[in-house]
Amino acid sequence: MFEEIDSILLKNSDGKKKIYRNPTIKDLPKFKYIEKIFRESMRIYPPVWSIGRLVEEDYLIDKYTIPKGSSILMSQYVMHHDSRYYDNPSEFNPDRWTDEFKRHLPRFSYFPFGGGLRGCIGESFAWQEGILLIATVSSYWKLELIPNQKIRMDTGITLNPKNGIKIKSSIRSI
User: CATH assignment of 2-171?
Assistant: First the structure.
């Protein structure tokens, strides 16, 4: 990630300090690895971890009928941690997101922003904002998890770390 940031945003270096320009929307296609990091983060911890739908008409799936008026709950979190689609699903691995891997994923095995007619209207903005934010912060800072912490999730309407996440921040140097 840092190599990618340096190759795209580094303006100059005097041997002691690196000077970066701010990323812009034009840089988005260049941030291939940062996109993978963001994609993998959204897989492991989708902000909205489940979605509900009301069945408007009887719906047949294989030999089962879901009756009109039923409520259905679909969980991005459960799908994104399914070993049928993701090897070592609990492991953070941005490198899994090759073009081939994305092409072979079944529809709705990855849907951090929902999907279909009721997909999140802000999805494209969130991708832009997330990638640019990671690039901006990581230009100057290195963030590391404090070791041995137990991260537990609070499953309200959105998925949040129950007691926060402790990190150590340090200024990136040459």
Answer: 1.10.630.10
